[in-house]
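Per your request, structure below.
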């Protein structure tokens, strides 16, 4: 293993692609993802990587090139963000339907309008039904590790599906943290060469993405993707165990923090998990039996792991850095569904929405969520709690007043 380096999340992603020995990198620039591609382009130009990097005219073309290259037997890596992910959205379903096991890094950024460069998870969660596996990183080290694990899972013949590895823009993409880079020998031991079962080859016909007549054929293949995604959960655990053998680091689809005797638990994912941990520690120092559950895997949704972690708790809050207009928090509703059949499920399940558009969520706000769990009589069942501070509201009201809004407009 190399000495520790101080790397941004973007450069950690680039290092993962480099040591995974990827063959092909189709690209299109978009903030805050561009540093990944710039770093890879620099290494290729210096002869430090043998990969082929091609800049396409759009994210739609980029993803089309990524999928078809993967079908030819190339190990493919690419990255995008926000509007770019949505621009190429049609191809996500095609890539999954083609069973092309590439890895796509999404550097989360809120979706316009209004426009912002800061992160929330509406971009990546919009893709949750596409057939891509989804892994979400809290720290820069996890970005690197999860990309390597993603290739191992995606290329497993029991799975053969693409993976999105998600990191938060700015909070992680441009934040430098200590990252250990595995040696080439360790990576080769963990990640075998890509060996697709039915690659495209001249003179050997292979059908991918053919038109079908009759819904029963379409339904059969969609169900096959579903079954493969479910298998990906167990394959991930196998890969994580192998990763620990060569690096000493372990990742689980669902991870607990101070959970053993916790009565009040917060469910969270991505980089804001680090802030939430501080709130849990503070509350523990005050004698509150608080704990935390971090979701690393969002697809396949790890329902059984969530049930195991949350059964018997007094109260649980789910923090969503997203909003599905007309419904509320996406992850809250999925956790609620996972707990529905648990006999000793938590007495209280609270939805907390914060961090939308990159709005910083403080330790105090996370503590406030725990206090609401301790006083459920002050909450309305099923109604999301929006975390918004008084000083932030005053700033918004001032901005609206300066823009000429009277308060009568929507």
């Amino acid at each position: 293993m190399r000495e520790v380096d101080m790397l941004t999340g973007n450069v950690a992603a680039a290092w993962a692609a480099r040591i995974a020995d990827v063959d092909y990198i189709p690209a299109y620039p978009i903030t805050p993802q561009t540093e990944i591609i710039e770093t890879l382009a620099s290494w290729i130009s210096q002869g430090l990587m043998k990969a082929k990097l091609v800049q396409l005219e759009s994210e739609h073309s980029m993803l089309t090139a990524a999928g078809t290259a993967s079908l030819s037997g190339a190990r493919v890596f690419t990255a995008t963000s926000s509007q770019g992910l949505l621009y190429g959205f049609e191809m996500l379903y095609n890539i999954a339907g083609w069973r092309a096991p590439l890895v796509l890094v999404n550097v989360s950024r809120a979706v316009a309008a209004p426009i912002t460069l800061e992160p929330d998870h509406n971009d990546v969660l919009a893709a949750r039904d596409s057939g891509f596996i989804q892994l979400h990183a809290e720290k820069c080290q996890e970005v690197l590790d999860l990309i390597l694990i993603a290739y191992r899972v995606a290329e497993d013949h029991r799975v053969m599906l693409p993976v999105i590895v998600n990191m938060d823009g700015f909070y992680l993409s441009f934040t430098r943290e200590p990252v250990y880079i595995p040696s080439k020998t360790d990576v080769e031991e963990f990640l075998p060469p890509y060996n697709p079962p039915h690659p495209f080859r001249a003179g050997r016909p292979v059908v991918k993405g053919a038109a079908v007549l009759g819904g029963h054929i379409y339904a059969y293949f969609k169900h096959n993707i579903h079954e493969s995604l479910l298998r990906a959960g167990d394959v991930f655990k196998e890969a994580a165990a192998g990763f620990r053998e060569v690096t000493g680091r372990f990742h689980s689809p669902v991870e607990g923090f101070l959970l053993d005797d916790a009565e009040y638990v917060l469910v969270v994912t991505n980089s804001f998990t680090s802030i939430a941990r501080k709130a849990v520690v503070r509350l523990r120092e005050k004698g509150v039996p608080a704990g935390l559950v971090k979701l690393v895997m969002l697809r396949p949704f790890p329902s059984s792991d969530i049930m195991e972690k949350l059964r018997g708790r007094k109260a649980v809050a789910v923090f969503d850095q997203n909003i599905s207009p007309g419904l509320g928090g996406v992850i809250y509703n999925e956790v609620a569904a996972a707990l529905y059949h648990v006999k000793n499920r938590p007495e209280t399940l609270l939805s907390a929405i914060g961090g939308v558009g990159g709005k910083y969520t403080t330790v105090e706000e996370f503590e406030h969520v725990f206090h609401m769990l301790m006083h459920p009589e002050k909450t309305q069942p099923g109604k999301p709690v929006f975390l918004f501070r008084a000083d932030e509201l005053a700033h918004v009201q001032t901005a609206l007043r300066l823009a000429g809004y009277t308060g009568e407009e929507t």
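The mean pLDDT is 95.

Regards,
D.
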